[in-house]
Amino acid sequence: MTQHIGQRIEAYYQDLPSHERRVADFILAHFDDFAIYSAADLARLTGVSKATVTRLFKRLGFAHFQEVREHARELRNLGVPLVTEPGHTAQAFHRHFEREQANVKAMLDALDPDTLGAIAQAVSTADNVVVMGFRNSYPVALHLRQQLLQVRGQVHVLPQPGQTLAEELASLGDRDVVVVVGFRRRVTSFDRLMAHLHTLPCSVLLIADGTATSARQHADWSVICPLDSISAFDSYAAAMSLVNILASAVLHEHLKSGRQRMARLSHHFEQLDELS
Fold first, then answer.
1. 137-155, pLDDT tens digit by residue?
2. How far apart, in whole angstroms, are the C-alpha atoms of residue 90 and residue 84?
Protein backbone atom coordinates (compact mmCIF):
# COMPACT_ATOMS: atom_id res chain seq x y z
CA MET A 1 0.00 0.00 0.00
CA THR A 2 1.18 3.55 -0.74
CA GLN A 3 1.69 5.95 2.15
CA HIS A 4 -1.48 6.70 4.07
CA ILE A 5 -2.56 10.29 4.61
CA GLY A 6 -0.92 10.57 8.03
CA GLN A 7 2.44 9.51 6.61
CA ARG A 8 2.06 11.92 3.69
CA ILE A 9 1.36 14.79 6.09
CA GLU A 10 4.44 13.96 8.15
CA ALA A 11 6.58 13.93 4.99
CA TYR A 12 5.37 17.36 3.86
CA TYR A 13 4.71 18.93 7.26
CA GLN A 14 7.73 21.23 7.54
CA ASP A 15 7.01 22.80 4.14
CA LEU A 16 3.27 23.39 4.65
CA PRO A 17 1.93 26.96 4.79
CA SER A 18 0.52 27.87 8.20
CA HIS A 19 -3.17 27.57 7.20
CA GLU A 20 -2.64 24.15 5.59
CA ARG A 21 -0.61 23.08 8.62
CA ARG A 22 -3.61 23.92 10.79
CA VAL A 23 -5.74 21.46 8.79
CA ALA A 24 -2.93 18.89 8.86
CA ASP A 25 -2.71 19.19 12.65
CA PHE A 26 -6.44 18.55 12.92
CA ILE A 27 -6.24 15.44 10.73
CA LEU A 28 -3.31 14.02 12.71
CA ALA A 29 -5.14 14.69 16.00
CA HIS A 30 -8.31 13.02 14.66
CA PHE A 31 -6.70 10.37 12.49
CA ASP A 32 -9.02 7.60 13.69
CA ASP A 33 -12.17 9.48 12.66
CA PHE A 34 -11.12 12.12 10.11
CA ALA A 35 -13.10 10.35 7.38
CA ILE A 36 -16.43 11.33 8.93
CA TYR A 37 -15.70 15.02 8.25
CA SER A 38 -16.46 16.74 4.96
CA ALA A 39 -14.12 19.27 3.40
CA ALA A 40 -16.48 21.99 4.64
CA ASP A 41 -16.33 20.54 8.17
CA LEU A 42 -12.52 20.59 8.11
CA ALA A 43 -12.53 24.20 6.92
CA ARG A 44 -15.01 25.28 9.60
CA LEU A 45 -13.34 23.41 12.48
CA THR A 46 -9.87 24.72 11.63
CA GLY A 47 -10.87 28.27 10.72
CA VAL A 48 -9.58 28.19 7.16
CA SER A 49 -11.20 28.41 3.75
CA LYS A 50 -12.45 25.37 1.88
CA ALA A 51 -9.91 26.26 -0.84
CA THR A 52 -7.13 25.81 1.73
CA VAL A 53 -8.40 22.32 2.53
CA THR A 54 -8.50 21.52 -1.18
CA ARG A 55 -4.95 22.79 -1.70
CA LEU A 56 -3.68 20.63 1.16
CA PHE A 57 -5.23 17.48 -0.23
CA LYS A 58 -3.83 18.17 -3.70
CA ARG A 59 -0.41 18.75 -2.17
CA LEU A 60 -0.74 15.34 -0.49
CA GLY A 61 -1.51 13.67 -3.82
CA PHE A 62 -5.32 13.55 -3.83
CA ALA A 63 -7.17 14.89 -6.86
CA HIS A 64 -10.33 15.72 -4.88
CA PHE A 65 -12.00 15.09 -1.55
CA GLN A 66 -13.85 11.99 -2.77
CA GLU A 67 -10.45 10.42 -3.38
CA VAL A 68 -9.59 11.14 0.27
CA ARG A 69 -12.75 9.28 1.36
CA GLU A 70 -11.87 6.34 -0.91
CA HIS A 71 -8.39 6.35 0.58
CA ALA A 72 -9.93 6.15 4.08
CA ARG A 73 -12.12 3.22 3.03
CA GLU A 74 -9.08 1.44 1.61
CA LEU A 75 -7.25 1.87 4.92
CA ARG A 76 -10.28 0.53 6.79
CA ASN A 77 -10.48 -2.50 4.50
CA LEU A 78 -6.85 -3.26 5.37
CA GLY A 79 -7.75 -3.26 9.07
CA VAL A 80 -6.54 0.23 10.03
CA PRO A 81 -8.91 1.45 12.80
CA LEU A 82 -10.65 4.41 11.17
CA VAL A 83 -14.12 5.79 11.82
CA THR A 84 -15.80 6.21 8.44
CA GLU A 85 -19.25 7.26 9.68
CA PRO A 86 -20.87 8.46 12.91
CA GLY A 87 -22.15 5.85 15.37
CA HIS A 88 -24.23 5.73 18.59
CA THR A 89 -27.55 5.98 16.78
CA ALA A 90 -30.43 3.54 16.45
CA GLN A 91 -29.71 3.35 12.72
CA ALA A 92 -26.05 2.55 13.40
CA PHE A 93 -27.03 -0.24 15.82
CA HIS A 94 -29.35 -1.71 13.20
CA ARG A 95 -26.67 -1.56 10.50
CA HIS A 96 -24.17 -3.12 12.93
CA PHE A 97 -26.58 -6.01 13.55
CA GLU A 98 -27.10 -6.51 9.81
CA ARG A 99 -23.33 -6.48 9.19
CA GLU A 100 -22.74 -9.07 11.93
CA GLN A 101 -25.43 -11.31 10.46
CA ALA A 102 -23.94 -10.95 6.97
CA ASN A 103 -20.46 -11.90 8.24
CA VAL A 104 -21.69 -15.06 9.98
CA LYS A 105 -23.81 -16.03 6.95
CA ALA A 106 -20.88 -15.55 4.56
CA MET A 107 -18.67 -17.75 6.76
CA LEU A 108 -21.30 -20.50 6.97
CA ASP A 109 -22.13 -20.34 3.25
CA ALA A 110 -18.47 -20.94 2.40
CA LEU A 111 -17.95 -23.68 5.02
CA ASP A 112 -18.39 -27.06 3.37
CA PRO A 113 -19.91 -29.62 5.81
CA ASP A 114 -17.56 -32.35 4.55
CA THR A 115 -14.56 -30.10 5.17
CA LEU A 116 -15.80 -29.32 8.67
CA GLY A 117 -16.23 -33.06 9.26
CA ALA A 118 -12.66 -33.78 8.15
CA ILE A 119 -11.32 -31.00 10.40
CA ALA A 120 -13.35 -32.22 13.38
CA GLN A 121 -12.16 -35.79 12.84
CA ALA A 122 -8.53 -34.70 12.68
CA VAL A 123 -8.79 -32.49 15.77
CA SER A 124 -10.65 -35.11 17.80
CA THR A 125 -8.11 -37.88 17.09
CA ALA A 126 -4.88 -35.84 17.17
CA ASP A 127 -2.28 -36.63 19.83
CA ASN A 128 -1.80 -32.89 20.35
CA VAL A 129 -3.70 -29.84 19.15
CA VAL A 130 -1.68 -26.62 18.99
CA VAL A 131 -3.61 -23.37 18.59
CA MET A 132 -1.66 -20.29 17.49
CA GLY A 133 -2.55 -16.62 17.14
CA PHE A 134 -0.90 -13.21 17.30
CA ARG A 135 -2.29 -9.77 18.17
CA ASN A 136 -6.09 -9.66 17.59
CA SER A 137 -6.04 -13.33 16.60
CA TYR A 138 -4.76 -14.38 20.03
CA PRO A 139 -8.10 -14.00 21.91
CA VAL A 140 -9.83 -16.14 19.26
CA ALA A 141 -7.09 -18.76 19.64
CA LEU A 142 -7.47 -18.70 23.44
CA HIS A 143 -11.23 -19.12 23.16
CA LEU A 144 -10.84 -22.05 20.76
CA ARG A 145 -8.43 -23.75 23.15
CA GLN A 146 -10.81 -23.22 26.06
CA GLN A 147 -13.71 -24.76 24.16
CA LEU A 148 -11.70 -27.72 22.89
CA LEU A 149 -10.47 -28.42 26.42
CA GLN A 150 -14.06 -29.16 27.41
CA VAL A 151 -13.97 -32.06 24.96
CA ARG A 152 -10.39 -33.38 24.92
CA GLY A 153 -7.00 -32.96 26.54
CA GLN A 154 -3.59 -31.97 25.13
CA VAL A 155 -4.69 -28.66 23.62
CA HIS A 156 -1.92 -26.05 23.76
CA VAL A 157 -1.86 -22.37 22.83
CA LEU A 158 1.19 -20.63 21.32
CA PRO A 159 3.09 -18.45 21.64
CA GLN A 160 3.47 -18.45 25.40
CA PRO A 161 4.43 -15.07 26.91
CA GLY A 162 8.13 -14.38 26.41
CA GLN A 163 8.70 -17.61 24.48
CA THR A 164 9.81 -18.41 20.93
CA LEU A 165 8.15 -21.00 18.70
CA ALA A 166 10.96 -23.26 17.51
CA GLU A 167 11.15 -25.35 20.69
CA GLU A 168 7.41 -25.98 20.57
CA LEU A 169 7.21 -26.83 16.88
CA ALA A 170 10.22 -29.13 16.71
CA SER A 171 8.40 -32.09 18.28
CA LEU A 172 5.22 -31.97 16.18
CA GLY A 173 4.42 -35.22 14.41
CA ASP A 174 2.01 -36.58 11.84
CA ARG A 175 -0.65 -37.22 14.50
CA ASP A 176 -0.72 -33.58 15.60
CA VAL A 177 -2.89 -30.71 14.35
CA VAL A 178 -1.95 -27.03 14.35
CA VAL A 179 -4.73 -24.46 14.17
CA VAL A 180 -3.41 -21.05 13.11
CA VAL A 181 -5.67 -18.03 13.63
CA GLY A 182 -4.41 -15.25 11.36
CA PHE A 183 -6.55 -12.17 10.89
CA ARG A 184 -5.46 -9.06 9.03
CA ARG A 185 -2.70 -6.74 10.17
CA ARG A 186 -0.72 -9.91 10.77
CA VAL A 187 2.83 -9.94 12.10
CA THR A 188 5.49 -9.75 9.36
CA SER A 189 6.70 -13.29 10.07
CA PHE A 190 3.26 -14.84 9.51
CA ASP A 191 3.76 -16.11 5.95
CA ARG A 192 7.17 -17.48 6.90
CA LEU A 193 5.56 -19.34 9.81
CA MET A 194 2.89 -20.84 7.56
CA ALA A 195 5.51 -21.93 5.01
CA HIS A 196 7.52 -23.56 7.81
CA LEU A 197 4.47 -25.39 9.18
CA HIS A 198 3.89 -26.74 5.68
CA THR A 199 7.25 -28.55 5.87
CA LEU A 200 6.32 -30.32 9.12
CA PRO A 201 4.44 -33.63 9.31
CA CYS A 202 1.50 -32.14 11.25
CA SER A 203 -1.82 -31.11 9.69
CA VAL A 204 -2.58 -27.38 9.55
CA LEU A 205 -5.90 -25.55 9.75
CA LEU A 206 -5.91 -21.82 8.95
CA ILE A 207 -8.69 -19.59 10.28
CA ALA A 208 -8.34 -16.15 8.67
CA ASP A 209 -10.01 -13.36 6.74
CA GLY A 210 -9.96 -13.08 2.98
CA THR A 211 -6.66 -11.19 2.85
CA ALA A 212 -4.62 -14.26 3.86
CA THR A 213 -4.36 -15.49 0.28
CA SER A 214 -0.68 -16.44 0.30
CA ALA A 215 -0.94 -18.26 3.63
CA ARG A 216 -3.82 -20.47 2.48
CA GLN A 217 -1.59 -22.44 0.10
CA HIS A 218 0.36 -23.77 3.10
CA ALA A 219 -2.68 -25.09 5.01
CA ASP A 220 -4.46 -28.43 4.71
CA TRP A 221 -7.75 -26.66 5.38
CA SER A 222 -8.71 -23.00 5.58
CA VAL A 223 -11.86 -21.31 6.83
CA ILE A 224 -12.51 -17.68 5.95
CA CYS A 225 -14.25 -15.44 8.48
CA PRO A 226 -15.23 -11.96 7.23
CA LEU A 227 -14.30 -9.11 9.57
CA ASP A 228 -16.34 -6.34 7.93
CA SER A 229 -17.71 -3.74 10.31
CA ILE A 230 -19.41 -0.37 10.16
CA SER A 231 -17.23 0.77 13.08
CA ALA A 232 -13.54 1.60 13.30
CA PHE A 233 -12.71 -1.91 14.47
CA ASP A 234 -12.92 -5.34 12.87
CA SER A 235 -15.70 -7.68 13.92
CA TYR A 236 -14.88 -11.17 15.17
CA ALA A 237 -18.47 -12.41 15.43
CA ALA A 238 -17.98 -14.88 12.56
CA ALA A 239 -14.71 -16.14 14.07
CA MET A 240 -16.29 -16.74 17.47
CA SER A 241 -19.25 -18.45 15.81
CA LEU A 242 -16.83 -20.75 13.99
CA VAL A 243 -15.15 -21.63 17.31
CA ASN A 244 -18.55 -22.73 18.63
CA ILE A 245 -19.30 -24.80 15.52
CA LEU A 246 -15.86 -26.43 15.44
CA ALA A 247 -15.82 -27.34 19.15
CA SER A 248 -19.32 -28.78 18.85
CA ALA A 249 -18.32 -30.83 15.79
CA VAL A 250 -15.28 -32.20 17.67
CA LEU A 251 -17.52 -33.16 20.58
CA HIS A 252 -19.89 -35.08 18.30
CA GLU A 253 -17.00 -37.03 16.77
CA HIS A 254 -16.60 -38.83 20.11
CA LEU A 255 -19.76 -37.93 21.98
CA LYS A 256 -19.49 -40.55 24.72
CA SER A 257 -15.90 -39.76 25.72
CA GLY A 258 -16.57 -36.05 25.33
CA ARG A 259 -19.50 -36.22 27.73
CA GLN A 260 -17.41 -38.22 30.17
CA ARG A 261 -14.68 -35.59 30.08
CA MET A 262 -17.18 -32.77 30.66
CA ALA A 263 -18.57 -34.69 33.63
CA ARG A 264 -15.06 -35.08 35.08
CA LEU A 265 -14.43 -31.37 34.58
CA SER A 266 -17.65 -30.52 36.41
CA HIS A 267 -16.55 -32.75 39.30
CA HIS A 268 -13.20 -30.96 39.55
CA PHE A 269 -14.86 -27.56 39.39
CA GLU A 270 -17.04 -28.57 42.33
CA GLN A 271 -14.15 -29.99 44.34
CA LEU A 272 -12.03 -26.87 43.78
CA ASP A 273 -14.98 -24.48 44.12
CA GLU A 274 -13.67 -22.55 41.12
CA LEU A 275 -16.95 -21.52 39.51
CA SER A 276 -19.94 -19.71 40.98
1. 999 999 999 999 988 888 9
2. 17
Helix or strand or coil: residue 225? coil
Q: Which H helix or E strand runs over 262?
A: helix 255-272
* Its pTM surpasses 0.70: no
Helix, strand, coil: what percent of the chain each, to 5? 55, 10, 35
Give pLDDT tens digits for 28-64: 777 666 677 788 888 888 999 999 989 998 988 888 8
Residue 143 shares a structural domain with residue 211 = yes
Q: Which domain holds residue 23?
A: 5-77
**168 near 128, Cβ under 8 Å?**
no
Cis previous bond, 159, omega within 30 = yes
In a domain, 161, yes or no: yes
What amino acid is encoded at 211 in this protein? T
Rounded Cα distance between 256 and 138, Å, is: 30
CATH number for the domain spanning 250: value is: 3.40.50.10490
Cα–Cα distance measured from residue 251 to residue 274, given in angstroms and rounded to the nearest whole number: 23
Q: Is the dihedral of CA 52, 53, 54, 56 positive or negative?
A: positive
